[in-house]
């Protein structure tokens, strides 16, 4: 594929546990290419290396072996063209909603009036009007998520790296945020130059609903067990509850079931 | 028991205690070396009215605040550097650890030798006392900065300078405020100790009173007023309580996001 924005080639990542001194093989031999504009979901049981994979692409850590190439360049550090949304949001508690959202433009040297204008635009877009001067601890879980999303979007990143971004909210909020995320990404009418998304989740139905492809990871060591195309038509929100949707969820679930069971047993053993 | 009744109980217990105290001292005729409530109030009025208390208090406070600021200015950057840079930590650790274990007031003789008795010696002791809480707490807080906050800042395009200013420093501020409260408490008790030590020396040289500690020495050894001495002690306690209250209030207004 020539238009791959991201190439992950024979990547391994081993950690050395500070506590026991053991080496942990978080990822073993990952090969993956992501075309520009794709919405890719990554699922797998906890501890299978999903966050590690995102950290490698974000440039927070380096692979122990193999290469991560972004637009043909080896990733050696973080950069604003690769936006990250963390599972715990990692909002700056000492900055207001506005302060958090304008942080990216501030870091890139955008002038005050322009970055405020951009931040206010995003605040409207994610529905946080009236909350711009609140601190993160004054927001609900769903609002923090929107704030983290807006903060990531403020830099107009080419790729969105999202680590279980909707894990910690209730089902209704989650459904609403899924729809909003799709809308922001360009679910209905995909523009040229639309962002690429790598979306980590442990919810299979969420992966199937959002993604063009679903990567299923296995654990110990972390590796790709399967890559499944999701040929559902877009816009996707209309597909919730359709028979094809249910069939695809069942297909992914079949692949993951053994792994999930193993993970639970190991969790109990420990 | 209702709130009102328990309040009445507390007040009457206190009144009984004070009356018993007063009675015991007056009836045994021990007023010369034992303080008693009415005497404390009378002497308190006297040293407040003639201005000596206020002058002494201002002198002590001024040195405490200056010493505290010096301690903060030196201690916070040192601590943050130690927390962030392992080599700075390695180099500074032995120095801070060994100096920290020497009580501030143990420096008084040397401080007097170097800086004289007029006040700079006390200032030195206070700055010395205040610097270590700042160093230790700032270092610990800088090490404890949330890794994801640092990563988020980097992914948003922030360089080292902005990360230091906009992530590391604000993350450490709540802990630094705690350090400030500890530092001020230690500084305040050190100034009194230093001034007491200096006061003895000053009185022997026949010079004037400069701070609360000196005032206490003077009231005891010159005026033989044990009640004024106790009043001075009460003022010391009150001031230390007020300083802490001010710092807590300041924390809530300056760091509204850190309020729990
Ligand atoms: N910094 C680290 N040091 C040591 N081990 C780690 C570290 N980060 C992750 N691991 C280990 O690597 C494995 C994969 O972790 P992670 O990528 O967080 O998985 P996931 O996000 O899928 O739950 C786990 O076994 C985890 O304990
Ligand atoms: Mg994870």
Topology:
The complex is a heterodimer of chains A (270) and B (260).
Chain A: E1 4-16, E2 23-35, E3 39-43, H1 50-58, E4 65-70, E5 73-74, E6 82-85, H2 97-101, H3 103-107, H4 112-125, H5 141-153, E7 159-163, H6 171-185, E8 196-200, H7 204-210, E9 213-218, E10 223-229, H8 243-269
Parallel strand pairs in A: 3-8, 3-9, 6-7, 7-8
Antiparallel strand pairs in A: 1-2, 1-4, 4-5, 9-10
Chain B: H1 3-28, H2 37-49, H3 52-84, H4 86-100, H5 108-115, H6 120-143, H7 147-155, H8 160-205, H9 212-221, H10 226-254
Residues 50-51, 163 of chain A line the site of magnesium ion.
Protein described:
Chain A is an alpha/beta fold. Chain A has a single domain (33-47, 72-260), classed as Rossmann fold. Helix content of chain A is 35%, strand content 24%. Chain A is built from eight helices and ten strands. Chain A has a six-stranded mixed beta sheet with strand order 6-7-8-3-9-10, sandwiched between helices. A four-stranded antiparallel beta sheet of chain A has the order 2-1-4-5, covered by helices on one side. In chain A, strand 7, helix 6 and strand 8 (196-200) form a beta-alpha-beta unit. Chain A is globular. Chain B has 260 residues and is mostly helical. Chain B has a single domain (41-258), classed as Orthogonal Bundle (MetI-like fold), CATH 1.10.3720.10. In chain B, helix 3 packs across helix 9. Residues 203-207 of chain B have low confidence and may be disordered. Chain A binds chain B through residues 55, 58-60, 77-80, 82-84, 86, 88, 90, 92-95, 103-104, 106-108, 135-137, 151, 155, and chain B through 146, 148-149, 151-159, 162, 166-167, 170-171, 173, 255-258. Magnesium ion binds next to helix 1 of chain A.
């Amino acid at each position: 594929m020539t238009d791959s924005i991201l190439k992950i080639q024979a990547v391994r990542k081993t950690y050395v546990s500070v506590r026991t001194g053991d080496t942990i093989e978080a990822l073993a031999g990952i090969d993956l290419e992501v075309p520009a504009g794709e919405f890719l979901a990554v699922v797998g049981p906890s501890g299978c290396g999903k966050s590690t994979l995102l950290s490698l692409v974000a440039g927070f850590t380096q692979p122990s072996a193999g290469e991560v190439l972004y637009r043909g360049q080896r990733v050696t550090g973080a950069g604003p063209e690769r936006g990250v949304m963390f599972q715990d949001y990692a909002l700056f508690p000492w900055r207001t909603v506005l302060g958090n959202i304008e942080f990216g433009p501030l870091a890139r040297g955008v002038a005050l009036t322009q970055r405020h204008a951009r931040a206010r635009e995003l605040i409207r877009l994610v529905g946080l009007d009236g909350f711009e001067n609140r601190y993160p601890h004054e927001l609900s879980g769903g609002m923090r998520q929107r704030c983290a999303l807006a903060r990531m979007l403020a830099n107009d990143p080419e790729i969105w790296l999202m680590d279980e971004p909707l894990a910690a909210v209730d089902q209704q909020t989650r459904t609403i945020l899924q729809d909003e995320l799709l809308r922001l990404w360009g679910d209905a009418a995909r523009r040229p130059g639309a962002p690429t998304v790598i979306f980590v989740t442990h919810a299979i139905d969420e992966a199937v609903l959002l993604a063009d492809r679903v990567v299923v990871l296995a654990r110990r060591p972390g590796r790709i067990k399967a890559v499944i195309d999701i040929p559902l038509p877009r816009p996707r929100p209309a597909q919730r509850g359709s028979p094809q949707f249910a069939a695809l969820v069942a297909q992914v679930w079949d692949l993951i079931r053994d792994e999930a069971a193993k993970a639970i047993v190991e969790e109990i053993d420990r | 028991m209702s709130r009102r009744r328990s309040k009445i109980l507390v007040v009457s217990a206190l009144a009984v205690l004070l009356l018993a105290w007063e009675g015991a001292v007056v009836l045994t005729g021990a007023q010369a070396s034992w303080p008693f409530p009415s005497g404390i109030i009378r002497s308190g009025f006297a040293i407040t009215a003639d201005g000596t208390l206020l002058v002494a208090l201002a002198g002590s406070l001024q040195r405490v605040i200056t010493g505290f600021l010096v301690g903060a200015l030196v201690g916070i950057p040192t601590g943050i550097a130690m927390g962030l840079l392992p080599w700075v930590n390695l180099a500074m650790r032995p120095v801070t650890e060994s100096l920290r274990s020497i009580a501030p007031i143990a420096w008084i003789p040397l401080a007097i030798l170097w800086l004289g008795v007029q006040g700079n010696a006390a200032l030195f002791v206070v700055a010395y006392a205040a610097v270590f809480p700042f160093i230790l707490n700032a270092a610990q807080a800088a090490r404890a900065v949330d890794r994801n906050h640092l990563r988020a800042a980097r992914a948003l395009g922030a360089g080292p300078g902005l990360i230091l200013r906009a992530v590391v420093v604000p993350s450490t501020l709540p802990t630094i405020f705690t350090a400030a409260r500890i530092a001020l408490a230690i500084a305040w008790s050190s100034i009194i100790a230093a001034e007491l030590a200096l006061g003895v020396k000053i009185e022997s040289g026949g010079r004037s009173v400069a701070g609360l500690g000196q005032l206490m020495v003077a009231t005891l050894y010159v005026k033989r007023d044990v009640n004024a001495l106790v009043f001075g002690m009460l003022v010391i306690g009150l001031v230390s309580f007020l300083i802490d209250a001010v710092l807590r209030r300041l924390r809530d207004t300056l760091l509204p996001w850190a309020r729990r």
